[in-house]
Amino acid sequence: RAVEERAGPLVVKPGWDKDLHVRRTIVSADGKKMLVYDGRRLVFFDGLGGDARPVAQAGCSKQKVIASKQGRYVVLYTQFIGSDGVVRIFGSSGRKVGEFYLGTWWTVTGVSDRGPLVSIKQQGMDYLLRGAELRDANGNILKSHDRGARDSAWYRFARDGTVYVVGRKARGGPYVSLLEAEAKTIATREFPDREFDPGSVGLDTSTKRFFLMTRPRITKGGYSPPDQVHIWDTRTDGVRVIPIETGGLGSVQSGIYLSPDGAYVAFRVGADALMLIRTSDGAVLFRKRPGGVLPGGESFRKFMDLTVMDDGTIVALGLCFGGDENERGYCIITREGEAIRAVKWKGLKWMQRLTSGRVALADSDGRVQVVPPPKGSAPEVPR
């Protein structure tokens, strides 16, 4: 009952089973639509949660579901054993905008809000497809990023549709490339003495600055240099380096969490600590375990996902103490490290950044809650 009061009623519509188990919930960036995949079909809704009205659906089974950052496009990909896979692309209203086939060893890795562009992978190599060419049954490969036989690269899409590549050269080190929509390289920077993964790279699209959480590539004499934030300005090719000192709380977890304008960057440290850095001067605003933030003095034992707001406030999703994997919740933490709100929410799974500084949270039963900006008025009604 407490969950229902907090997060609204279940999504139970005609044709849906009452024991609905949602495999994936995707909310559009404007917070007005949502897509729900339950393992058998993809249903498109106007509205959120219990207030939602189904407008279209696509039958499917055992498919991979990938959405663009702003929810404008969603990809359904089915791979049949020993035969071609089918890729279908839908707009947020449920209209199919493309369909094509991929060979046995291909898989879909991402989709852009612009185009749409779709990235596909085969044996460690990423390729890019243009939306206007998706009517070709052969997929019509647009371009493979230039690299040697043993190089690897991953296409990534920013919120405004900007395309960039995170890769590793066979002889050299990891690198980042900024691309135009036509897959033409604008700027490339290699980091030969550092290590990073695609999930530890963020892009501020307004200033074309990359933020990378990097680790030392080689440790000599038992001494391990600290992890660092590299800020690469593609317009000037200048690089600023900020050391990440965790203060004995543990190692920095993979992943980098940027505010929309790149003014703040957050990290998960150890098992249950967070860290916030102001990028303009490298100042550490807080570095601590936000304890005692839940009712009864409980705290989080593991943070799983973060969203950083414009003013440095963090919305954090994590596992709570004293519960199983479903005993989850979220909390709002100021840039001084103080938890100002915490909610237990069993089954909470997904968090998405929306426009106007809002964050959408969704669980495995189809409930959706929109968290407004911290400085906003009264919280929006959960659905």
Keywords:
mainly beta; Thrombin, subunit H; five-stranded antiparallel beta sheet; four-stranded antiparallel beta sheet; 1 helix; 2% helix; disordered C terminus
What report would you give on this structure?
Among the domains are: 92 residues, Thrombin, subunit H, CATH 2.40.10; 68 residues, no CATH class. It is built from 1 helix and 32 strands. Strands 17, 18, 19, 20 and 21 form a 5-stranded antiparallel sheet that branches. Strands 1-2-3-4 form a 4-stranded antiparallel sheet, with no helix packed on it. The protein is globular. The two termini are 14 Å apart.
Shape: globular
The chain-level mean pLDDT equals 80
What CATH first level of the domain at 199-290 would be assigned?
Answer: Mainly Beta
CATH architecture designation of the domain at 199-290: Beta Barrel
Name the structural class.
mainly beta
The proportion of residues forming helix, as a percent range, comes to: under 10%
Percent range for β-strand residues? over 45%
- Counting DSSP H or I runs of 4 or more residues, the number of helices is 1
Largest sheet: 5 strands, antiparallel
The value of Rg in angstroms is 21 Å
Taking the alpha carbons of the first and last residues, their distance comes to 14 Å
Question: How many DSSP E strands?
Answer: 32
Name the poorly predicted regions: 1-17, 134-139, 376-383
